[in-house]
């Protein structure tokens, strides 16, 4: 059955409840909860070292939670059941490719993923301009990364985890990555992308998670962000709108320096005004520097959809 016509998964793609995890004695998460309720592209953002890669590894079953519950596609990832492993693909930030050509990689490893799509692999490699028959040993870092991205997309797993996929790619390749993510073959599944390259994902994301101090502090759809926030650039500091949630000069401060701003969007004041696109880089900085007012303006999406907010989960559970 073509991927685009697959039925939606019976299980919630991802559910993490009251997760506790520490590397050695240093606690990283002390009660992290987050859910991907439906397929889509989720962006996982946060400062260096906040725990994004660790969460992806927990979702792939490479690490075990110390307390709490992690579920992906209805499975407990750490059990590493073959049925689960066939449905999840983790593209780590750093990886080792055997000294094969991309074509040989498909022949030797493609069979591990039951939905591996050889035609899609060839199309992705072509789009990213990776030579099919050149051994990886003779490729640059960026070329290897692109080959790995093509393989990850072609594996067609219901859950795809990508850690900093655009790191090391040139500007043209980043645009090509965005085009690949927007292909219809990707629309049916759940993709979680950890990244600092906010601009690379603006047009691709359906949903945003922002992690800080071991918790997901922002869990909002892009539609909600566009509905709740208004962003723009003023010609100078004197031209900034009143009551900004975040403001920053775009260059060395001077009376003529333009300033970027974020304000609460007031749909009641102009109900027919179209929602403006969300500038993720600005949002990222605003969340990193002064999150409280911004989070209050965005509000709790779960509360409005009847979902339990963080910390109201039922029974805490410890996994093997
Ligand atoms: N193998 C490891 N052993 C010990 N500590 C680790 C290990 N991997 C990660 N950590 C620590 O866990 C914390 C979270 O690391 P992680 O790589 O998950 O963060 P991140 O948000 O992905 O960071 P970055 O944005 O820099 O990639 C860091 O303080 C890091 O030092």
Jot down its keywords:
320 residues, alpha/beta, Rossmann fold, 2 domains, 6-stranded mixed β-sheet, 11 helices, 28% helix, disordered N terminus, disordered C terminus, binds adenosine-5'-triphosphate
What would your notes on this structure say?
Residues 14-238 form the ABC transporter domain. This is ATP-binding cassette domain-containing protein. Residues 299-320 are annotated as: Disordered. The protein is an alpha/beta fold and 320 residues long. The protein folds into 2 domains: 3-220, Rossmann fold (3-Layer(aba) Sandwich); 223-300, no CATH class. 28% of the residues lie in helices and 24% in strands. The protein has helices at 52-60, 82-85, 102-109, 118-127, 141-154, 171-181, 198-201, 222-228, 280-289, 291-298, 301-305; strands at residues 14-23, 26-36, 40-46, 67-72, 88-91, 159-163, 190-194, 207-212, 215-221, 229-234, 246-249, 259-264. The chain has a 6-stranded mixed beta sheet with strand order 5-6-7-3-8-9, with helices on both faces. Strands 2-1-4 form a 3-stranded antiparallel beta sheet, with helices on one face. The radius of gyration is 21 Å and the shape is globular. Bound molecules: adenosine-5'-triphosphate. Adenosine-5'-triphosphate binds at residues 23, 28, 46, 48-54.
Distance between the first and last residues' Cα: 36 Å
Largest sheet: 6 strands, mixed
What order do the strands of the largest sheet run in, or round the barrel if closed? 5-6-7-3-8-9
Q: What is the β-strand count?
A: 12
Q: Could you tell me which ligands this complex binds, including any ions or cofactors?
A: adenosine-5'-triphosphate
Q: Round the Cα radius of gyration to an integer and report it.
A: 21 Å
- CATH architect. name of the largest domain: 3-Layer(aba) Sandwich
In DSSP terms, counting alpha (H) and pi (I) runs of 4 or more, how many helices?
11
The amount of helix comes to: 25-40%
- Find the structural class using helix and strand composition: alpha/beta
Query: Which CATH C-level class of the largest domain is it?
Result: Alpha Beta
């Amino acid at each position: 059955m073509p991927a685009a016509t697959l039925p939606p998964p019976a299980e919630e793609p991802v559910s993490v409840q009251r997760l506790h995890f520490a590397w050695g004695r240093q606690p990283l998460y002390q009660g992290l909860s987050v859910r991907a309720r439906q397929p889509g592209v989720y962006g996982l953002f946060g400062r260096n070292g906040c725990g994004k890669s660790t969460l992806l590894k927990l979702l792939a079953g490479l690490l075990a939670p110390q307390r709490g519950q992690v579920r992906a596609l209805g499975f407990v990832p750490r059990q590493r059941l073959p049925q689960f492993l066939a449905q999840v693909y983790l593209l780590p930030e750093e990886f080792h490719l055997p000294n094969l050509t991309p074509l040989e990689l498909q022949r030797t490893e493609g069979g591990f993923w039951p939905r591996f799509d050889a035609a899609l692999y060839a199309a992705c490699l072509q789009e990213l301009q990776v030579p099919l028959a050149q051994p990886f040993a003779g490729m640059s870092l960026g070329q290897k990364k692109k080959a790995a991205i093509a393989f990850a997309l072609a594996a067609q797993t219901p859950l795809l985890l990508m850690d900093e996929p655009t790191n090391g790619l040139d500007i043209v390749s980043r645009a090509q990555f965005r085009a690949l993510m927007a292909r219809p073959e990707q629309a049916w599944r759940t993709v979680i992308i950890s990244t600092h390259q906010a601009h690379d994902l603006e047009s691709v994301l359906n949903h945003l998670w922002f992690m800080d101090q071991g918790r997901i502090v922002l869990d909002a759809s892009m539609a909600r962000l566009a509905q709740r926030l208004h962003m723009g650039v003023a010609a100078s500091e004197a031209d900034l709108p009143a009551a900004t949630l975040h403001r920053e000069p775009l260059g060395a401060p001077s009376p003529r320096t333009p300033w970027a701003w974020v304000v609460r969007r007031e749909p009641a004041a102009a109900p027919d005004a179209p929602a403006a696109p969300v500038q993720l880089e600005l949002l990222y900085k605003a969340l990193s520097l002064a999150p409280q007012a911004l989070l209050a303006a965005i509000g709790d999406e779960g509360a409005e959809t009847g979902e339990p907010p963080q910390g109201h989960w039922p029974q805490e559970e410890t996994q093997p």
